[in-house]
Amino acid sequence: MTHSVAVLGRRPALFKTVADWKLPDVQLTIHDSPSEALAVFAEGTGALLVFDTTEYRRSRHVVEKFLSLRGDADLIVLGEPAVLAGLQNKPHRGALRRLAPSVPGDELRLEVERLLKLRDVRSRSGIVGRSRAVNQMIALIAQAAPLDVNVLVTGESGTGKELVARALHQHSARHDRAFVSLNCGALSEGVLESELFGHEKGAFTGAIGKHDGVFKRADGGTLFLDEVAELPLGMQTRFLRALETGEFTPVGGSRIERSDIRLVAATHRDLLQEVEAGRFRQDLYYRLRVVVIPTPPLRERREDVPILAQTFLAQENEAHGFSVRGIARPALELLSAYAWPGNVRELRNVIRSMAVFRQTGMIETADLPEEILTGQAPGQTANLPVPLERGAPGLEMEFLMASLLELRGDVKRILNLLQGGEQVPVPFSGQVVDTFAGESGYTTSPAGGDGDLVSAERALIERALAATGGKRRLAAERLGISERTLYRKLKKFGLH
Questions:
Q1: Quick check: 367 and 354 in contact, CB under 8 A?
Q2: CA-CA distance, 295 to 134, in Å (whole number)?
Q3: How far apart are the C-alpha atoms of 232 and 280, rounded to whole Å?
Q4: Within this chain, do residues 141 and 263 fall inside the same structural domain, yes or no?
């Protein structure tokens, strides 16, 4: 692909330097007018701007204007640190680099080539994100891909380990040969051996013909073994020998076959702990971890969630002919705040589900799944005390009241125990009180068992419906619950 690179400056020496660059697949333009240079990036198609701030009185203004443009173009600033003071954390999807104005031309060219290479890796890999963690991962891929060495990709399930493996293959010298993948955790030991090394006809019941394993099918290319920690110990010995010598024997065969592969292995486990526990061979461990590339969990790169969400939504629109315009800001904020235990895979499935149900218009807060609204993944339990703010997203008022009532009961039982079983007064008013901002009234429910929560819930819902003129979506937002939860409560209390 061709990259559009612009150079903005007023020093003839810089113009002479860049004119001598021989950069393949690069369309290079040189400007002395900021407006002309920025026009290259106005439509979001430019790749990189080199801005020499020398002789520009409003250089900071130019930088701020560039950062406000859409797209993900990278920026190299030749200037003093003050030019970028306070701008490093300004939201921008591209890289932001500063070099001294006196940087040698060869060093500047190498930085330009490095950033363009990272862009190429990113665009061809399908890896989405501009967080520091993702940028570090992309840099490791770019460095390791040309080297014909084993790579171990680590990270939680759903973080995109196979995308990393494919990116390594695409940017290696083997890119025009086969990329073969095998999940070691999905197969029994007998089937796994056959899938790795193949089998001869008649090797076992059902072997009606010769079968080539992944070692043979990946010959000359890349073999990706996912969940390599699930290899049985006995299989690890044979696998290590095949990896070291390139020689193996199919199941039921006697002839030695050879294969030249580049291995990329992946696991969500801590392999060193597996070695210490005796479940993984130490020599195989060191054979695999020549280069290690960690894939960050989504909770450690929350700034990428809006980018990922919009990207997945666009893909769903294109794949199914939907016309969902986007995701409302409050919904994006809730998506970014969620912990995503299933990582990118979970986010993609959530976006797919909402797109299927919405199909047109905007995805709003009420369209989000319950776990996103409450901030709790299925199976998690909430803990009190927690800092609360009126109108805090994801806070379900009925959960809060249930927790307070349970807490009151716990306090009673503890005090009773400390007093030797005697009933003692508890400093609790016996009321659950809810007040809404901007309203003078309040609703109370007398204490006394399960009826406390039921009456309090009903009173809160009736109050919210009255305040919103019966509009259920607004009432749900006011209560801090999803619209689906509100419908369920209305049916429960006979209010629908």
A1: yes
A2: 8
A3: 8
A4: yes
pLDDT band at 406 (very low <50, low <70, confident <90, very high): low
For the chain, the farthest-separated pair of C-alpha atoms sits apart, in whole angstroms, at: 92
Residues 334 and 263 in one domain: no
Give 16-64 pLDDT, tens digit per residue.
999 888 888 899 999 999 999 999 898 878 899 999 999 898 899 999 9
Quick one: 385 exposed, middle or buried, by C-beta within 10 A (0-12, 13-18, 19+)? Answer: exposed
> Based on the structure, what is the number of domains in the chain?
4
The CB density around residue 57, as the number of other CB atoms within 10 Å, is 7
The Cα 456–Cα 460 span in angstroms is 6
* Residue 323: strand pairing partners: 360
Three-state SS for 222? Answer: strand
Question: Which residue segment(s) compose the domain that 102 sits in?
Answer: 3-122
- Enumerate residues 6+ apart whose C-beta is below 8 A from 253: 198, 199, 200, 203
User: Alpha-carbon distance 132 to 440, whole Å?
Assistant: 48
Look at residue 305 and tell me if it is in a domain: yes
Cβ neighbours around 132 below 10 Å, total: 12
